[in-house]
Design goal:
8 helices; single chain; three-stranded parallel β-sheet; four-stranded antiparallel β-sheet; alpha/beta
């Protein structure tokens, strides 16, 4: 893959053979962020898990203390008084069965997170083929299937992110923006890593955290030492 001049210049600042401590890694990641827009800083965590085994699946959510720097649009599936509650809590879109054809047939996807009350999961289940591949399906483990829609919306708007293994057993999550201070990014990163360490499957043998890399949207990755998190 051909990289641009800016990328090549940024890559020179990083020693690929070095595992940086958290503070240095965050400082470097901010330095190599050189796009014209405010890049997202992402953590890429390669695990020793085998997601094909149910007991080694990792999925959960954590509220980052300083949020992600992104405006998150929330869609809530509910009925009765829960519709009003969701609206009052600041949901961007609220509805029920009538939203199904809009999403299925019209390809409407103007939302980043879907929350549903348990009694609506029969309806939402019909959207599995659309929402599933995009990682938008509500899930009790992530706190997005709940009767407490106010708490769910507040948490999401405050910076709650979901983490899960992809097909190659890597977790990809945002920890903030390049414009964040080093302290803010450090707080967010440590909060995320604490949650991931706690989520270690009991059945896993061998190394859990194989590598952790921080990278801006358009920039090269910086490898982080996992010693503190092992």
């Amino acid at each position: 893959m051909k990289r641009g001049k800016k990328y090549a210049e940024a890559a020179k600042k990083i020693d690929r053979n070095t595992l940086y401590d958290v503070a240095d890694a965050i400082k470097l990641t901010k330095e190599v962020s050189s796009a014209k827009f405010d890049e997202t800083i992402e953590a890429h965590i390669r695990t020793g898990c085998d997601g094909r085994h149910a007991e080694q699946q990792i999925r959960g959510a954590v509220v980052l203390p300083h949020g992600t720097g992104k405006e998150v649009r929330v869609l809530v599936f509910a009925k009765g008084t829960k519709l009003d509650e969701a609206q009052a809590a600041g949901a961007d879109h609220v509805g029920g069965e009538e939203l199904i054809p809009k999403i299925q047939n019209e390809g409407w996807l103007d939302f980043d997170v879907v929350v549903a009350t348990p009694d609506m999961m029969g309806v939402v289940g019909r959207l599995g083929r659309v929402l599933g591949p995009k990682g938008l399906m509500p899930n009790p483990k992530a706190g997005t299937v709940t009767m407490d829609v106010t708490k769910a919306i507040n948490d999401i708007k405050a910076g709650k992110i979901e983490y899960r293994l992809d097909k190659t057993n890597i977790i990809h999550v945002p920890i903030g923006k390049a414009s964040f201070t080093e302290d803010q990014l450090t707080d967010n990163f440590k909060t995320l890593m604490d949650a991931i360490v706690k989520a270690k499957p009991a059945s896993l043998k061998g190394t859990y955290l194989k590598s952790v890399t921080l990278a801006p949207t358009m920039g090269p990755g910086v490898k982080v030492s996992t010693v503190k998190f092992a």
